[in-house]
Amino acid sequence: MRIRISSYLLKLIILTLVIGAFPVLILGWYSYHYSSQSVLQQVEERNSQVLRQSQLRVEQTLKMIDFSTTQLLGLPTVTNAIATNLGIKDMEMIHELYKNLSSIQTFELGIKDVYLFSLEQDWLITNSGMDAYSQPGLKEKLRPFAGMPNGSVWISGNSASIQGADGMVELNHAVINIKKWPINSSRPRGMIAVVLSSQQLNDLIANEPGMGSVFILDEDGRAISHSNPSLLDKDLSAEAYIAAIRDKEDTAGVFNGIADESKASISYRKSAYNGWTYVSVVPTQAVTRQATAIGRTSILISLCVLAATVFTALIGSRRMYSPVRHIYSSLLPDKEQRPRKDEFIAISDRIQGILSDQTKLQFELEGQQQQLAEFLVRKMMLGEARSQGIQERLMDYGYGHTSQWTVMRVLLVQVDRLDSSRFTEQDRDLLLFAISNIALEVVPEGDRLPPIVIRESVVILTGTSTQSEEAFKESVYARAAEVQASVKRYLELQTSIGISRSCTAWPEVGRGYEEGENALKYRARLGEEVILFIEDVQPASRKEIVYPKKIADELCEAIKSHDSGRAEERLSQVMNALASEESDHQEYQMSLVRLLMDLIRLLQDAGISHHLLRAGEDSLFEELLAMHSPGDIEAWFGKVIVSPAIGLLKERQETQFNSISEEVKQLIAEAFDTDLTLEKCSARLNYHPQYISRVFRQETGTSFTDYLAQYRLTVAKRWLKDTDLTITEIAMKLKYNNPANFIRYFRKMEGITPGQYRTNLVE
Fold first, then answer.
1. Which end of the chain is less packed: N or C, by CB atoms within 10 Å?
2. In b/e form, how buried is each residue of 273-305, taking b as 16+ CB within 10 angstroms?
3. Rounded to an integer, what distance in angstroms lies between the CA atom of residue 246 and that of residue 190?
4. What Å distances lie between residue 391 and 410, 626, 671, CA to CA?
5. What proportion of the chain, given as a percentage, has pLDDT over 90?
């Protein structure tokens, strides 16, 4: 019986063709579409940029001409001439005007003619001569523009209809700038007209290959400049694309339209300077020629890839089907019994039949059973194991005796400290593994599950089926004490063990683990190397701890007084008072945190940051809560908080005293000749007078009054020596009630009167 090609092989060929051909077709279509759009967009952007550059060049030239004419009208020679009736006698002024008009007719600007027209005196002069001799009739063509609302305007020659009589003034196809003088006057006294040929505008417009037709329209839609000379001065506003441009509100843009009966890409820019419109018309056929070539190439490549895909699908499918045919023949050797269905379905049915005949997998490998049992115990401790099926899994792992347990307890073994042993923190994981092995040896196998390590604890789940609650508790205590003693004997380490309440079902094991952890936390009050049952250390009803506030306040006062001995004594009393309270360990920790906050607040009130007390990388609160022994906690408070706080306060006080004394001395030096008192100094320094008096005496060894009197005496001696002030004047300046008091104090301190002191200095 031959395998039908219409089955799996045919499906594989069809699937391969679909997977291979679909991306090729999509890629070809996308390549052609993207390339066409990209080429069109690039050409449109290029045309817009070139059109913008052309506009900038044209408007720059026009603005330069506008600026030149404005400067010309501002010349004194021009303004004086407009008010003068020029004649033969004014040939020098005429010659000067001719020179000024010729000066703006530069090659770069492309100016054809310049006309200066005096409306006031009715004369016209150009860069070629006077109106009276060369161009009669041009004045009548220029005169109507005197009433235009704008001071300056750009017009085309055709729209202006300015043509001289008898062909003397030819302005066809020209662009003219007409400016009044004064420029904003409604009744100007003169005008100037500058004529720019359309050829100059054509030279400024970029007519690059591929740009198509580029031209400029005035406000009336007439062609001012065009690459086709026959269209100059023609009204193009009737063209559909020109009307579309004039209807658009945007000042610049690109759109597709019909020009010369063919599709074209039209770019435009509307000038805000003179109202002209710059237009570029590029036939769409020229733009899409390159995109068409790209599209043809894409189609050709897609067809080639598609053919290669078909060939690969046919050959590859047959090669991929070969292993399937081999497996099919191996599983179904009897050709007469092969089902008429898909090969994979037949193979799947055969494999399912083989698996259904197999018995369940055996878990006889000892190492795997141990690891699986430890994993299950970990999940139970963390509350992640489902209660259904736990007993069955334990039986599969070789712990069938647990089915007889009626009560269980969880034991957590933790190392108290490593700093006093021969081990370091890096050895902790190895030590926990060693303690786990010791527990395996000490606790009988029938009374426990395999110990596991969770974080910093060795966790042991033990149970019994025969003992009462009290007997089981005593048995657990004996096992815990034996483990503790063995660890100390073999590893020379002190350990503490926390024991949970009894559990009667597997879902309660997670709660037992938490209770064991909580029991170990009571080491902070009861000391190290202890065995703690949670029901013994945790009260049934929580009692709020009584915080020894009075002793804590006395501790703060001792720190403020810099009395290290009394501070150490009060700290010990606080710790003993907290340890003696029967309360939950969390309340105990909260009391420790409150004491720490009181001491930190003491420093902050003195302007000292508590960050100066940090002794390690962890915060003060993390270091405090990480300790377990009451002795360690008391030693930590003394070493890290109390002693440094006394030193910092003493240093701050010395600095503060010295600062206050210096400020008082400075006040005396500045105000010794006023009614300066201790109360006024205290008001200036924001301290109590008694506090300033005590600090000043402590720092200087004299009182404020004596120091002020001594300072005034020094000043008086200097004035007696260096000035001609009388004794009375000196006494008044130094704020003595009368000169007699001053003389009496001077004699008391110096042994002579002020007058005798001055006489001795003279002699």
1. C
2. ebebbbbbbbbbeebbeebeebbeebeeebeeb
3. 35
4. 17, 37, 94
5. 5
- CB 287 within 8 Å of CB 39: yes
pLDDT beyond 80 at 315: no
Six-digit token string for 489: 């004997």
Q: Which amino acid is at 737?
A: N
Measured between alpha carbons, how far is 410 from 528 in angstroms, rounded to an integer?
20
* Rounded distance between C-alpha atoms, residue 398 and residue 564, angstroms: 63
Average pLDDT of the chain to the nearest whole number:
77
For tokens 């029991």, the residue is 519
Distance (Å, whole) CA 695 – CA 684: 16
What confidence tens digit (pLDDT) does each residue in 426-485 have? Answer: 888 898 899 999 998 999 988 889 999 998 899 999 999 887 888 888 899 999 999 989
Beta-bridge partners for 414: 496
Tens digit of pLDDT for each residue in 64-82? 888 888 888 888 888 888 8
Contacts of 521 (CB under 8 A, 6+ apart): 585, 589, 628
Q: Both tokens of residue 303?
A: 């067809």
The residue among 331 and 171 whose pLDDT is bigger is: 331
| pLDDT confidence bin for 578, thresholds 50/70/90 | confident
DSSP assignment string, 346-414: HHHHHHHHHHHTSPPPP---HHHHHHHHHHHHHHHHTT-S-STTHHHHHHHTT-GGGGG--EEEEEEEE
- Alpha carbon distances (Å) from 589 to 471, 522, 551, 678: 34, 10, 18, 49
Residues 449 and 589: their CA atoms lie apart, in Å, by 34
Dist CA 599 CA 553 (whole Å):
10
Question: E strand or H helix at 150, and its extent?
Answer: none
Is 295's pLDDT higher than 70? no
Instruction: State residue 169's pLDDT score.
Output: 45
DSSP string, 419-430: TTSS--GGGHHH
Handedness of CA 550, 553, 558, 564 (dihedral sign): positive
Task: Round to whole Å and give the CA distance between 236 and 220.
Answer: 9
The whole-angstrom distance between residue 451's C-alpha and the CA centroid of its chain comes to 49
Q: Which of 140, 146, 110, 112 is nearest to 126 (CA)?
A: 112
Euclidean distance between CA atoms 654 and 661, whole angstroms: 11
Q: Supply the DSSP string of 387-404, one letter for each residue.
A: STTHHHHHHHTT-GGGGG
Per the structure block, which two tokens stand in for 60?
Answer: 């720059």
CA separation for the pair 563, 571 (Å, rounded): 12
pLDDT at residue 132, rounded to an integer: 43
453, 377 Cβ separation under 8 angstroms: no
